[in-house]
Design a protein that fits this description.
Layout (H helix, E strand, L loop, with lengths): L30 E4 L6 E2 L3 E5 L5 H9 L3 E2 L6 E6 L19 E5 L3 E6 L2 H14 L8 E2 L2 E5 L5 E7 L7 H12 L5 E5 L32 H13 L3 E8 L4 H7 L6 H17 L5 E5 L10 H11 L3 E6 L10 E4 L12 E3 L12 H8 L12 E8 L8 H7 L2 H14 L6 H4 L8 H14 L17 E6 L2 E6 L26 E4 L41 E2 L2 E2 L8
Parallel strand pairs: 3-4, 3-5, 5-7, 10-11, 10-17, 11-12, 12-13, 13-14, 14-15, 15-16, 16-17
Antiparallel strand pairs: 1-9, 2-8, 6-7, 6-9, 18-19, 18-20, 21-22
Helix pairs in contact: 1-2, 3-4, 4-6, 6-7, 8-10
């Protein structure tokens, strides 16, 4: 039936959310103790706030929950900066502060201890979730939480060069993802299709004539500063990327010559200076440096040196035909991306959401550890989830919907904060990841937030840990759990799936049962794999669900494929 993947899922599109006080916290805190008999800290009243860090988000959380901050009150919120949070873990990563905090909640007092102002932001994000824990009541459970991240860098990336995303959409995602302690937005600003960063010295770069997609749409430098300042309030660092010298078709159309030239090098130095000015808070500038033949060996070293003179550190992709050890941080992509010794590395090797199934990969990426280890170090900074959406979609929300954006980013960030993960995804694979107890707990917590803070977002994810399948292939029966079932994975040579022996042209049958207590009409999500959202494949032929001839029946009645639009 299929060589790479088959997904067929029919379920009631409703989820029962368990009552929560602290069991909905996501990511799970490293240490949490409920106070037996302790009374909750009631919200919706006057409180005093003593905070030497003047944390904007902390005050915002209090006010959003009905608290009025006054000069004198019996009910207090107190912040104290300390030298250390006992038992916590940290390591050096330039540009990223210690995030550990201790939160103690009692009837009349919320006490926060932190080593840095960033730790206060993380405590505020935990309070934000705790405030959602009571249905019909406004209060925070009496608890003591000691918390810190296993990995210091936990991020998401958008390719706005290929697919323009409005600034307000990016800000909304930053605000919502910060609740789950995501702390990095990697902003891919340029591509072959379009150059989206305003360069005042070279206005042709952002002219409609130089773009092949979403023509005339770009971000002004004022908007870049605005977004960076906005992200800082939520404890998120922005890493802007100008891809060079590859992925530079838009540059060449605008400038009339290759980037790898003496003239191109001079222009790129000018552009990088404007980029640094537009992102005054960014500790890193990303130079790309992948997927290009290097015809000017001095280009990347010269740009790295120039970035250093601008007072910034540099990130590059690996694999690259340049020397990644010359950069200050390395971002790993694809199975051939390998850790560079002596540099902090970001693991993105299997975090390409455009290749993800909406269900199986979400479970697998949560269960997987990060680059073979269970916590970060000076050589392993963390992970970023990347969306490379090559295909033109009707709306920016479709990018989020079709790439399982929120479930996948939150799953990856949860693992990065909590640490652990028994196996790396290359060994773990995608054979029924949804049946693991650890994932079932994550799923319950995520569905709570889907119905609360994320209720207005385009999320197709529903409970899948109870979905069981019988798979028949060449006379043998196999069992699978989860709404997405891979027969072969997209990366079949490196990620184990259910039927690694299956070949092109083979047929497999997959069956499940859905019980409904009443006769009713329900929604259905039906998805079969048509390669990824970033490949140059066409839509399936008329009357077919996919390019492999898959067919689908419900109650013995065949469900015909829709008429696809290319």
């Amino acid at each position: 039936m299929k060589r790479t993947i088959l997904i067929a899922f029919v379920a009631l599109l409703a989820t029962g959310i368990a009552k929560a006080r602290t069991n909905h916290l996501l990511p799970q805190p490293q240490q949490i103790t409920a106070k037996a008999g302790g009374r909750l800290f009631a919200l919706g009243r006057k409180v005093t706030l003593s905070d030497p860090t003047a944390c904007w988000l902390l005050r915002q959380v209090l006010e959003e929950n009905g608290c009025e901050v006054v000069a004198k009150s019996k009910y207090k919120v107190e912040v104290r900066l300390v030298d250390d949070i006992p038992g916590s873990y940290d390591y050096r990563l330039e540009g990223y502060e210690n995030e550990a905090y201790r939160l103690d909640v009692s009837e009349n007092l919320i006490s926060i201890e932190s080593v840095t102002p960033t730790g206060v932001i993380r405590a505020a994000q935990t309070l934000q979730q705790l405030a959602e824990g009571y249905q019909g009541r406004s209060g925070i459970e009496a608890v003591t939480i000691t918390d810190w991240p296993a990995f210091k860098l936990r991020g998401f990336m958008h390719d706005t060069g290929r697919s323009f995303i409005p600034l307000d959409d990016l800000k909304r995602q930053i605000r919502l993802l910060s609740r789950f302690k995501v702390n990095t937005f990697h902003w891919h600003l340029t591509e072959n299709q379009a150059w989206r960063f305003e360069v005042k010295g070279y206005p042709l770069l952002t002219s409609a004539a130089s773009m092949t997609r979403h023509k005339g749409q770009f971000y002004t430098q004022k908007q870049c500063r605005e977004l960076e300042a906005y992200a800082r309030q939520y404890g998120i660092t922005v890493i802007p990327e100008i891809d060079m010298p590859g992925h530079s078709g838009a540059f060449e159309r605008a400038m009339g010559h290759p980037m790898q030239s003496e003239q191109g090098l001079r222009e790129m130095k000018y552009i990088l200076a404007e980029l640094a000015d537009a992102f005054p808070l960014a500790p890193y500038l990303h130079l790309g440096a992948d997927e290009v033949n290097i015809t000017m060996p001095a280009f990347i070293p010269a740009m790295i040196d120039w970035a250093h003179k601008l007072g910034r550190k540099v990130v590059v992709w690996n694999p690259t035909k340049a020397d990644p050890s010359q950069a200050d941080m390395v971002q790993l992509w694809s199975s051939s991306g390998r850790l560079v010794k002596g540099r902090p590395n970001i693991d993105c090797r299997y975090n390409y959401l455009n290749h993800f199934d909406s269900f199986a990969d979400v479970a697998a990426i949560y269960l997987s550890n990060i680059y073979y280890v269970q916590r970060g170090s000076e050589e392993l900074a963390g992970t970023i989830s990347c969306v490379w959406n090559d295909h033109v979609l009707p709306t920016a929300d479709d990018i989020l919907r079709q790439n399982a954006f929120y479930p996948a980013v939150v799953a990856s960030a949860s693992r990065a904060w909590q640490g652990g993960g028994e196996q790396y995804i290359e060994t773990l694979g995608v054979v029924s990841p949804a049946k693991h107890a650890d994932f079932i707990g994550w799923e319950e917590r995520f569905l709570f937030h889907k119905s609360h803070a994320l209720s207005d977002e385009p999320i197709v994810y529903v409970r899948q840990s109870h979905v069981n399948w019988k798979v028949t292939y060449r006379g043998r029966n196999y069992q699978a759990t989860g709404a997405g079932v891979y027969l072969n994975h997209t990366w079949r040579n490196v990620i184990p799936a259910l039927l690694p022996q299956a070949q092109f042209g083979d047929t497999a049958w997959i069956e499940t049962r859905v019980f409904s207590p009443d006769s009713q009409k329900v929604g259905a999500l039906i998805e079969l794999q048509n390669y990824s959202r970033s490949e140059q494949d066409s839509v399936p032929e008329y009357g077919r669900w996919d390019c492999k001839g898959s067919r689908l029946w419900l109650n013995n009645v065949e469900i015909l494929a829709p008429i696809w639009k290319n």
